[in-house]
Amino acid sequence: MVARREVGAYVVLEVADEAVAAAPGQFYMLAAVVGWGGGEGERPFLGRAVSALFARAGRVGFLLEDVGPGTRRLCSLAVGEELWLVGPLGRGFVPAAGEREPLLVGGGVGIPPLAMFQEAWGGRALLGFRDGWHAAGASLLEGAELATDDGSVGYAGHVTDLLERELERGAGKICVYACGPPAMLETVRALALAAGTPAWLALEAPMACGFGACFGCVVATRDGFKRVCLDGPVFEASVLA
Amino acid sequence: MTVFCGIEIAHPVINASGCFDALAAREVFGDALRERFPFAAYVSKTVTLGPRAGNPPPRLWEAAGGLINSIGLPNPGIDTYLETHLPAYAALGVPIITNVMGSTVEQFAALVERIALRDEVAAIELNVSCPNVETGLDIGADPHELERLVKALRPLSAKPLIVKLTPNTMDVAACAAAAESAGADSVSLINTLRAMALAPGSAAPWLGGETGGLSGPAIRAIALAQVASVAARVAIPVVGMGGVASGADAAALLDVGARLVAVGTESFRDPAAGRRIANELAQRFAENAA
Question: What is the pTM assigned to this prediction?
């Protein structure tokens, strides 16, 4: 690990990795080389699936929030400590085709794929956070419109309310790219489908391996269970069951 | 070079069924995988007669020093396996062991008869960690049920039959002896241990399948004891597995009588674990010889 900085409630880790650069929406399995295991409940044991925040010049970045023994250890890493990295993995976003303008909708620690999308292909962003401390993460994107649950920054309420407004204004002009907590993504999916607007969702699922071996991360689709790690993590909203 | 049931393989480290998807791994890691496949033989995921979707998610729970899974044996069924998966596996350049499961003797027989016709398959592994839908008994947990099954399957194929024993039984060595007396060429163990986790802050089971199988370092000491007791009881070769994460872990299973060692959950943490463990093992052999 070559750099670490705190952004509100989050930690940005920068890791040297000469392997192929990640595309927006791709992820890595991360584990600390030292001190992985032996924490709370003798965890962590497995690596943690974390989306790339940026990938440039032999460096890859990750956005982390301390929410359990695995992310706690990763957040505690100091510059110079080593990580196990497997990746980049999965199928990421594809840029908007045709006339539609990309609209990025994200929440919380789910914003990294959208930051990479915006850097590569542009797009306006609507981002939701719990509170002002978490909303500091919005600085990782350009010009995002914000919503917070506690109303301390931007619109008081859910980011999906902002999406609803955008869909009312011009559902036929936009294509939605979203990443965030499951409840948010489910609302994005329902709104986009009802409006007839294409939407691509970057899903999250607990994974043991990240490369298609364990079949543990499946999501229900119209075509049966699909592996989030291999067939996703980005899925077109209409294929999800 | 190691010889196992008449099959020559490069070293004694193979994968545990269900813990390495050679097709997905090739898609993710590319041709590097084919050039340096991490295992000396490839054991397929469990194949059943018809397709299976598997259990509803969530399917995973991280336990202390391990993993509980309730994947539920998703697979495309024997027809698709033979048509598309097996030819792709054959291109891996290592012997292929096909793992099968049925809920009745007849289902097992139909699977073994189909696979017996395919030259690409070097050996057949029988997943007997399932209830017999007719008797309700776990086939692999009961020596008499197991003997009846293996006796029925033995004449159906000249290929080596490996019986994958379940650890969820009173006397695993008695089950191994029953498999041997019925004509099995090898036994492999241990499969996962039945386990459960509750959803955080709830009294309800977390896993979609309610219970699952525990694997990883958490079961290593149990595996060592069960492999030792089986190897002391039977003359046929034993494939040992359970929590193997290093050459030292593999060496311990070989020391108590295993012929081969299989790597399971560790491959989830490190896709190249098979090769690393084989290299560590070879280094130990070289040091001991010197």
Answer: 0.93
